[in-house]
Design goal:
Elements lengths: L3 E2 L2 H23 L4 E7 L3 H16 L3 E7 L5 H13 L5 E4 L9 H5 L13 H8 L8 H14 L6 E5 L6 H10 L3 E5 L6 H5 L4 E4 L17 E4 L3 E4 L5 E4 L4 H4 L5 E2 L6 H20 L7
Bound molecules: NADPH dihydro-nicotinamide-adenine-dinucleotide phosphate.
């Protein structure tokens, strides 16, 4: 039987709608409009597309969007000064610095300069620590979106075997923390892991965040498993055109999995929707108001 396809696009639309409702409530009842500041340094084309899309969706749900586009040769000191200004600005509830930053800027220094309460990407060391110790944190958007979809498709996750492929700070590690928080039995595998296919064969949940096109083979997946494909890889089709594929061999895997996210249209749309949700959460926390559920 073919897997259920997890429609991240539809899911993200529902989440955006609920964000928009909460924004409207904040405006009408409290005269507060959540604001998200996005900072882009340089002219990386993919980053420009992401930033444009974030700004557009921020406005669509009724929030204020502040975009800062800085030249590639912006100094680290100037970027830190802008972040300090945004930290102090009460109309800005969320700050996102688009990664990657140019080589001459220390990424960790910049991320950790953001007020943790406004760190809607959840990359600040305080938020990573809060998440790891089971306390209230800003949770990174991509793993948060994955978790929302998993909850919807698997229901209660307690006791399930989850394997996360990848251990990056932005996807793999926070994903593992979130699954642990849900009482899954979590295994994290990476490039030095031995017998990865054996480990995957026992997984009820697979989250692939590898960055290698079609890496996960259908034969490695347990029948009926739920597969979340975070990967976004552009491959050459050999005829001068390219196409986006995930980290999972989707066509074969959907014949084995119980449910699976497609690429595109799976995790990607949920990431921006979660960014909007995190901004509303940050705004509510800043004003000691009830947060969206
Ligand atoms: P990183 O490159 O930071 O991490 C990749 C991870 O995969 C590393 O932990 C690496 O192991 C592991 N890995 C690499 N090769 C292998 C292998 N052969 N076997 C097992 N593990 C391996 O990537 P990110 O976490 O930033 O992103 C992963 C993917 O997700 C990318 O395709 C990225 O584009 C996509 N992405 C998508 C988002 C979305 O919104 N949908 C958001 C963010 C990322 P090691 O640590 O040992 O090197």
């Amino acid at each position: 039987m073919t897997a259920r396809i997890i429609d991240g696009k539809a899911f993200a639309a529902i989440l955006r709608e609920s964000v928009a409702e909460h924004v409207s409530h904040l405006k009408q009842t409290h005269e507060i409009t959540p604001g998200l500041a996005v900072v882009l340094v340089g002219d990386d084309p993919a980053s420009q597309v992401y930033v444009r899309s974030k700004g557009k969706q921020t406005v669509e749900v009724g929030m204020h969007s502040y975009e800062y586009k800085l030249p590639a040769d912006t100094s680290e000191a100037d970027l830190l000064a802008l972040i300090e200004q945004l930290n102090l600005d009460p109309s800005v509830h969320g700050i996102l610095v688009q990664l990657p930053l140019p080589q001459h800027i220390d990424e960790a220094l910049v991320i950790n300069a953001i007020d943790p309460a406004k760190d809607v990407d959840g990359f600040h060391i305080s938020n990573a620590g809060l998440l790891a110790t089971g306390q209230q944190a800003m949770v990174p958007c991509t793993p948060l979106g994955c978790l929302m979809m998993l909850r919807e498709y698997c229901g209660n996750l307690a006791g399930l075997n989850a394997v996360v492929i990848g251990r990056s700070n932005i996807v793999g590690k926070p994903m593992a923390q979130l699954l642990l928080r849900e009482s899954c039995t979590v295994t994290v595998v990476h490039s030095r892991t031995r017998n990865l296919p054996d480990i995957l064969s026992g997984a009820d949940i697979v989250v692939a965040a590898v960055g290698r096109p079609l890496f996960v083979q259908a034969e490695w997946i347990k029948k009926g498993a739920t597969v979340i494909d975070v990967g976004i890889n552009r491959i050459d089709q050999g005829d001068g055109t390219t196409r986006l594929v995930g980290d999972v061999d989707y066509d074969a895997a959907k014949e084995v999995a119980g449910a699976i996210t497609p690429v595109p249209g799976g995790v990607g749309p949920m990431t921006i929707a979660c960014l909007l949700a995190n901004t509303v959460t940050a705004c509510c926390r800043a004003h000691s108001l009830p947060e969206p559920k």
